[in-house]
Amino acid sequence: MSKNESQSRASSLLHYLQHELQHYLLPNHCLLCHSLSPEALCLNCSLKLSRPTKACLGCDLRLNSEASFCPECQQGQHNFDQAYCAFDYEAELKQLIHHFKDKGQLRLGCWLSQELAQRLKQAAQQKAKHQQIDLMCPTPQHWLKRLKRGFNQAAFISKQLNRHLEIPLQICCLFEHKLDFNEQKLLNREQRQIHAAEPFTLKKRDIRGLNVAIVDDLITTAATANQLSRQLKRAGAARVEIWALARTPKPNRQLKQARDQHQT
Question: What is the pTM of this model?
Answer without folding.
Answer: 0.80
